[in-house]
Amino acid sequence: MNSSIFLASDSTCQTYTKEQAPQAGWGQFLPEYLPEYTICNHAIGGRSSRTFIEEGRLKDIEKEIQKGDYLLIQMGHNDATIQKPERYTDPYTDYKQYLKQYIEVARSHYATPVLITPVARLHYVLGEFLIDFNDYCNAMKEVAEEEECILLDLMSLSIAHLTDVGLDQATTYYMVDVNGTDYTHFTEQGANQIAAIIAKQLHLIVTA
């Protein structure tokens, strides 16, 4: 039986309907690059590491995940929304504790957790793509070290790719190219590219 990859994340990863196109999440393109796995995309917009758990979404994953599966955890965008206290987490305290709950759920079912740092927003200043959510990226790296968990540094990987393709091409990856305002969410082109980056890293992890 094929292994499954479960996705616990937010709007940057979730699957969108055809009516919502061209907005897309990287999770919906992952099956194209990892056809040997069943992709179970539980990502949904507006959720932080905290609210995803509070709403029972991690419990839903726990009911299905099995030995040999993977749990990909990309959280941070909504954790950083301090003006929305119901979703906010402090990076070095409760954010880290919530991340450890995801790891525990995966390992308790003999599945492999993979922490994924937040993906880059289109934040370009003075000729440089800037890193957002720096504290959350660092806190996640600390958790990976403390828990001896696989880490995929998507922030660094996505910034490197945006730098490589340049601002004009990078802009087409984000909904700002469509509506002029959204520097966070992906177009189908952008989501597809991020999925390709993640799949490449997962292949390296699995074959290591």
UniProtKB/TrEMBL annotation:
Descriptive protein name: Rhamnogalacturonan acetylesterase
Entries under Pfam families matching the protein: Lipase_GDSL
Family the UniProt entry places it in: Belongs to the 'GDSL' lipolytic enzyme family.
InterPro entries: GDSL (IPR001087), RhgT-like (IPR037459), SGNH_hydro_sf (IPR036514)
Keyword annotations of the record: Hydrolase
Domain of life of the source: Bacteria
